[in-house]
């Protein structure tokens, strides 16, 4: 790549010829990158391309094996994230790292809370500052509630607020929007534009390409840890970018097959959980993909959890293929043929310290058994089979899942549940953090499952995904189902109107 | 091939196993009176109570829980055995009653933990005191010693002139069952998942509470079996039998590489830890080390056993990062 030109501003932060390996995996090879004040720079690449590793190197989490990090043109050696923060670099990592027992405000102002005389912490000042940040992001979150139990989207918002609270010169964001819906993303982008106009440099990662084109001016692409290009986005198309990332043209992103719906597979009747959702009724038929849309906090995830038995419901009933499910019993839901791909892969979807093989194996504890003992051969071939079908990128199937990139972890969660051969599949943000190429692959898979008679309920914050894949769209608003829109009538406008409560069913 | 978490634990296993062999070889060579069959049979016999309880305790710690009331359950079961024997009941009737009592003790712990959601550390510190208190009410300060000879002989005798106590054979059977249960069954696999991430285990359809209830109940059962063995082995049923045994069990299990945070370890390592501790105690007794000093050594080992695997893991991480 070209070195700093003599005209224009100098880069605030840069990487020069950086390499980083984890054992045999070469996550970054001779990568260079320059971040200029007043620009929003996109970092693009498939799952496992090395984006998060690059960011962690910039932030001082990883030390480069070779090459340099340059701050204002001079080489620096950050000895940890604290050093980078002191240098004015704020980072939002791909996976939220909040302390569950601390309040939102405490999480944001961790270790640097406003103090009053005698060093007492000024709770009021912390509270107000946090409230102001939430206001700026346009979300309603109580600064004093503990972080425990926040949805992934809300956790992400707290992380964003925390990064913003630093007034940093450089803002680095690793997939901040992956769990957010359109309206939260719009707010975030508003804030980012302001920061950019004030001269901040922003590095932005997202697998939603339209977001990259909306907010960024330049893009750096990585493929398998190698630098491919750094170029202006002006004049590029999404297809150009995909070709850079993948090295080939992409198939149809929403390969939806037309399927004649069969019998009712999942039936939810007047389901209520006090204070969370109320009177929710719907059906999903075999062969159907039903989208469940709504704003963050509308109660979509909570309905899914209750159906699967993670939470108890207070009233109503759920049946799968005519069999009533037991309240609060995931194991019986599973034996009825139900599967739930949960939204939070790290806490709910995976045992992070366990191998890929055993994580996928966890849903097969009843099937890969011979004479009461684990059938290791069967377990391994089942896990390998699904890891390959979902194109999980790993070194060894026996590696722990925490060595995988975010998107590849997500694929393991999908693999784990698809391996159960479900008759009813509930997916909560199935493609969160998954790259475009694999996203198309997951969509193809879901479509094929539906064609094979599986009933699919799809929760997604990615509206184009819902519109592209769903036969019908159910919309929730503040804990109630407010609309049911057939595929032919579903547009961004009709869905958003129902999701924001502007239209009644 | 093992996954990384396992291979790290295996490394610590190996360390403890090797340490055990070193201690044994050293003692054979340099400690007077260690190597003869009689002393070895004492060593094994005295270690058996710890080993017996270590079996379910390992499973419990792997799943992220702990039971500190085991020694009190053992004491209670011995006390009830003594009291019923004094009443003139047949030993064949008494033993099942005591085992049932152990099941109840374990069930109480399990229900308090799973139904009320209380931390097992707190619950079992409470029942540690409660069960011991009941034992004292049941038997007072009596010591019952006149159990039938064939039972006493079985619990304290050895096979011919060998170093193998009779009771070691049933222990080996129980050990084999526990190894298979933990490392080769879906049940064992689910315990590792629960210990590593209870939430993820629940989302995978694992019946977390039920598995825990089973474990606490089994632990109670094994504790009472140990209490019966203890009373017969030492030919003395008193309310304060086995006092403090829970510390030795926990120390040995942690020493064997079972992670206190759950989700990691192997039963082989735990049992190596148990016999390492047993061998050290035997050697110290032969060398006339005072009981107090022995407790200090146990304490130091406990601290080391918590630190050891962590240090080993740190080294592994640093190595993995610097290689390549
Ligand atoms: N701590 C680690 N130990 C071993 N391998 C690692 C570790 N962290 C990352 N890797 C590997 O490095 C490669 C790059 O991972 P990275 O997380 O940077 O990808 P990414 O571009 O952020 O992908 P995604 O879009 O899925 O988030 C992957 O092959 C990953 O498995
Ligand atoms: Mg990443």
UniProtKB/TrEMBL annotation, chain A:
Domain ABC transporter: 13-249, 259-503
InterPro entries: AAA+_ATPase, ABC_carbohydrate_import_ATPase, ABC_transporter-like_ATP-bd, ABC_transporter-like_CS, P-loop_NTPase
CDD domains hit by this protein: ABC_Carb_Monos_I, ABC_Carb_Monos_II
Phylogenetic classification of the source organism: Bacteria, Bacillati, Actinomycetota, Actinomycetes, Kitasatosporales
Gene Ontology molecular functions: ATP binding
Organism expressing this protein natively: Streptomyces lomondensis
Repeat in keyword set: yes
Domain of life (superkingdom): Bacteria
Protein name (Swiss-Prot/TrEMBL): Ribose import ATP-binding protein RbsA 1
Gene name in the database record: rbsA1
UniProtKB/TrEMBL annotation, chain B:
Membrane-spanning segments: 12-31, 37-61, 94-114, 121-143, 163-182, 213-236, 291-312
Membrane topology, record value: Multi-pass membrane protein
CDD domains (UniProt xref): TM_PBP1_transp_AraH_like
Keyword Ligase (UniProt): no
Keywords: Cell inner membrane, Cell membrane, Membrane, Transmembrane, Transmembrane helix, Transport
Protein source organism: Streptomyces lomondensis
Highest taxon above the source species: Bacteria
Name the UniProt record assigns to this protein: Autoinducer 2 import system permease protein LsrD
């Amino acid at each position: 790549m070209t070195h700093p030109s003599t005209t224009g501003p100098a880069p605030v932060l840069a990487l020069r010829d950086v390499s980083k390996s984890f054992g045999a995996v070469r996550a970054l090879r001779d990568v260079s990158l320059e971040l200029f004040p007043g620009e929003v720079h996109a970092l693009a690449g498939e799952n496992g391309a090395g984006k998060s590793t690059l960011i962690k190197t910039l932030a001082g989490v990883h030390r480069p094996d070779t090459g340099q990090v340059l701050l204002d043109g001079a080489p620096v050696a950050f000895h940890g994230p604290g050093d980078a923060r002191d240098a004015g670099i704020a980072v939002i990592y791909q996976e939220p790292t909040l302390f569950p027992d601390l309040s939102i405000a405490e999480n944001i102002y961790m270790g640097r809370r406003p103090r009053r005389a005698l060093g007492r912490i000024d709770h009021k000042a912390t509270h107000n500052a946090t409230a102001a940040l939430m206001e700026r992001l346009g979300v309603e979150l109580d600064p004093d509630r503990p972080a425990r139990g926040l949805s992934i989207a809300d956790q992400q918002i707290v992380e964003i607020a925390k990064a913003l609270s630093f007034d940093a010169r450089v803002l680095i964001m690793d997939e901040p929007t992956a769990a957010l819906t359109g309206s939260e993303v719009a707010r975030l982008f508003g804030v980012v534009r302001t920061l950019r106009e004030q001269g901040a440099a922003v590095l932005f990662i997202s697998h939603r390409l339209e977001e990259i084109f909306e907010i960024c001016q330049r893009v750096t692409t990585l493929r398998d840890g190698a630098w491919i290009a750094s170029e202006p986005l002006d004049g590029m198309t999404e297809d150009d970018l995909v070709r850079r990332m993948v090295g080939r043209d992409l198939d149809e992103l929403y390969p939806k097959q037309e399927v004649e719906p069969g019998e009712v597979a999942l039936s939810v009747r007047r389901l209520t959980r006090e204070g969370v959702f109320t009177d929710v009724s719907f059906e999903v038929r075999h062969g159907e993909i039903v989208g469940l849309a709504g704003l963050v906090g509308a109660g979509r995830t909570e309905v899914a959890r209750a159906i699967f038995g993670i939470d108890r419901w207070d009233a109503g009933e759920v049946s799968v293929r005519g069999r009533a499910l037991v309240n609060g019993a995931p194991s019986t839901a599973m034996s009825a043929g139900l599967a739930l791909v949960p939204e939070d892969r790290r806490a709910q979807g995976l045992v992070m310290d366990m191998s890929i093989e055993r994580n996928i194996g966890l849903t097969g504890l009843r099937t890969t058994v011979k004479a009461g003992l684990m059938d290791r051969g069967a377990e391994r071939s089942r896990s390998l089979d699904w890891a390959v079908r979902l194109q999980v990128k790993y070194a060894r199937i026996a590696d722990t899942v925490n060595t995988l990139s975010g998107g590849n972890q997500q694929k393991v969660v999908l693999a784990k549940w698809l391996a159960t051969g479900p008759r009813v599949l509930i997916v909560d943000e199935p493609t969160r953090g998954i790259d475009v190429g694999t996203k198309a692959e997951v969509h193809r898979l879901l479509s094929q499952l539906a064609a094979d008679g599986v009933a699919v309920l799809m929760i997604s914050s990615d509206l184009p995904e819902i519109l592209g894949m769903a036969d019908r769209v159910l919309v929730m608003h503040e804990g109630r189902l407010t609309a049911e829109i057939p595929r032919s009538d579903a547009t961004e406008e009709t869905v958003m109107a129902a999701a924001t409560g502007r239209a009644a069913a | 091939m093992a996954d990384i978490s396992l291979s790290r634990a295996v490394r610590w296993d190996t360390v403890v196993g090797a340490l055990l062999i070193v201690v044994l070889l050293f003692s054979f060579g340099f400690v007077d009176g260690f190597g003869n069959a009689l002393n070895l049979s004492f060593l094994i016999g005295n270690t058996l109570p710890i080993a017996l309880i270590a079996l379910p305790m390992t499973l419990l710690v792997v799943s992220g829980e702990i039971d500190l009331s085991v020694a009190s359950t053992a004491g209670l079961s011995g006390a009830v055995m003594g009291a019923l024997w004094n009443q003139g009941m047949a030993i064949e009737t008494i033993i099942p009653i005591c085992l049932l009592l152990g099941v109840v003790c374990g069930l109480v712990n399990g229900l308090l933990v799973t139904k009320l959601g209380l931390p097992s550390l707190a619950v079992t510190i409470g029942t540690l005191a409660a069960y011991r208190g009941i034992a004292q009410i049941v038997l007072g300060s009596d010591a019952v010693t006149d159990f039938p000879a064939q039972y006493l002989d079985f619990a304290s005798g050895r096979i011919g002139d060998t170093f193998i106590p009779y009771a070691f054979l049933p222990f080996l059977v129980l050990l084999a069952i526990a190894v298979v249960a933990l490392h080769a069954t879906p049940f064992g696999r689910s315990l590792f998942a629960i210990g590593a991430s209870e939430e993820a285990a629940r989302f995978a359809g694992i019946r977390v509470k039920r598995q825990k209830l089973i474990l606490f109940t089994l632990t109670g059962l094994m504790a009472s079996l140990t209490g019966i063995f203890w009373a017969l082995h030492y030919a003395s049923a008193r309310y304060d039998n086995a006092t403090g045994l829970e510390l030795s069990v926990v120390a040995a299990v942690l020493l064997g590489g079972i992670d206190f945070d759950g989700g990691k370890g192997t039963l082989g390592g735990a049992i190596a830890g148990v016999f390492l501790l047993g061998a050290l105690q035997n050697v110290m007794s032969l060398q006339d080390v005072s009981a107090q000093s022995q407790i200090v050594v146990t304490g130091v080992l406990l601290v080391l056993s918590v630190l050891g695997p962590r240090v080993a893991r740190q080294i592994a991480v640093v190595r993995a990062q610097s290689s390549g």
